[in-house]
Amino acid sequence: MTPRPTVIDCDPGTDDAIALWLALASPELDVRLVTAVGGNVGLEHTLPNARAIVALAGKQVPVVGGADRPLLGRFEDAAHVHGDNGLAGVVLPEGPPAAPGLAADAIRDLLRAAAPRSVTLIGLGPATNLGLALATEPALAGRVAEIVLMTGAVGEGNATPSAEFNAWNDPEALAIVLGAGAPVTLATLEVTGQALCTPAHIAALREAGQGACLTAAARIWERVKPSRRSGGRGHEQHDACAVAWAVAPHLFRQVSVLAEVDCGPGIGRGRTAIDRWRRGGRGAEAVLLETLEAEAFFALLIARLAALP
Ligand code: RIB
Ligand code: CA
Is any ligand 1 atom within 6 A of the Cβ of residue 15? Predict the structure, then answer.
């Protein structure tokens, strides 16, 4: 098995932290670059959080800051979910300085040097950095093996009744990424809602080891409030689902669909229209992740976190 060259764009973010640790602990992925975007909290937190998360895993992966706001529209965070510092108040040891430059440029530089269809892009936040990279050099989509996005919802959103948070934050950037011409896989709220972290999972994590990353992950999990969406049963590991698809696709069932995003100003802004029956003939080809073997997912996640320093 040759590890997949991978770029992870994220807005840590409590679930981003877990997803990053899963990616960095997984031999199936060769994480070459981590980029930060404003999202769950402002870039002034997401960038240092990304640096700290990578450093705690003992990895020498460059971390580059990117967009602190969407392409259009107003930036709105989700600090009410992730805490003011983005990690539910958990403070990690500071990581090394960010690599110089901007995320979109770093992504393009990496793609320009890559072989055709060789790089996996995993988007865990608003798609602004990915959209900027692909819009300013469209031919680079040919170097991309797959774009895996935690974004969107088939039904009700979580940021608004219509829209999931990442899609809602920058629908124009998502539209660019969906239409870029690279294979796209979507982890929407319907599949991430199956990755519900409960007190039993937190106890299992605590029992699995005492490493710094595992302990930090447990502290984060213990502090994140159960979601209303789950009826208070737990909190969704949204972003780790996107990484888990790249690491263990056998845990999922998926279907081919057409997907587009509403970039209008109205109540539907950021809504992802997922056309599984191709009725309208509109939208970009995409793979929609439909089901997840949740307990196998958490067993994998916990085992990989336990393997980190
Ligand atoms: O709607 C959930 C998504 O928005 C996750 O990626 C979470 O981290 C936030 O970015
Ligand atoms: Ca995220």
Answer: yes
